[in-house]
Amino acid sequence: MTLDRSVLAFAGAMVLLSVVLTVLVHPYFIWFTVFVGVNMIQSAFTGFCPAAMIFKALGVKPGTAF
């Protein structure tokens, strides 16, 4: 799996996790969903993605976007 796909899979998992936490635990977990969405938007414009940096440090092979 490339770095691009790893980042997308991680972001999708975080969105799903935050929705489950919002429904089952507390409505304020919706802010976690907002944070993930804002991070995805800023990384699209700036190319800076903390998750990509972490995955790269873990040795995931590079993709075309990161």
How would you describe this protein?
This is DUF2892 family protein. By secondary structure, the chain is an all-alpha fold. The protein has one domain (3-57). The chain has helices at residues 3-24, 30-46, 50-57. Helix 1 runs antiparallel to helix 2 (30-46) and helix 1 (3-24) crosses helix 3 (50-57). The longest helix has 22 residues, at 3-24. It is elongated, with a radius of gyration of 13 Å. The mean pLDDT is 94.
In short:
The protein is mainly alpha-helical and 66 residues long. It is 71% helix and 0% strand. The chain is elongated and about 35 Å long.
Query: Low-confidence parts lasting 5 or more residues at pLDDT below 50?
Result: none
- What is the N-to-C order of secondary-structure elements (H for helix, E for strand)? HHH
Number of domains: 1
Q: Supply the number of helical segments.
A: 3
How much of the sequence is in beta strands?
under 5%
Helical residues, percent:
over 70%
Transmembrane segments: 7-25, 31-55
Domain Inner membrane protein YgaP-like transmembrane: 2-56
Pfam families: YgaP-like_TM (PF11127)
InterPro entries: YgaP-like_TM (IPR021309)
